[in-house]
Design brief:
Blueprint: E1 2-7, E2 11-17, E3 23-30, H1 45-59, E4 70-75
Parallel strand pairs: 1-4
Antiparallel strand pairs: 1-2, 2-3
Length: about 80
């Protein structure tokens, strides 16, 4: 099994696939974007961490964790 992690602006999306690429499970964990002033946006990096860890825990419920062979991580931040 393999885990894919997409760290996005408002959520982290996680995917668990088998060796043939068949989707076994998928999870989305949202987090808050703060807007303290006009034109500003802020996020707490601890929310990203908590989202990833919590998402992995949910993703692997009922699965053999020792069967995970790899993890891929991607994300887009500060784009226009």
């Amino acid at each position: 099994m393999y885990i894919g992690i997409d760290l996005g602006t408002s959520s982290v999306k996680l995917l668990l696939v088998d060796g043939d690429g068949k989707i076994i499970n998928s999870v989305t964990q949202t987090y808050t974007v703060h807007y303290p002033r006009d034109g500003w946006s802020e996020q707490n990096p601890e929310d990203w961490y908590s989202g990833v860890i919590g998402g992995i825990m949910r993703l692997l419920v009922g699965q053999d964790k020792s069967a995970v062979k790899g993890v891929g991580v991607g994300g887009q931040m500060h784009g226009l």
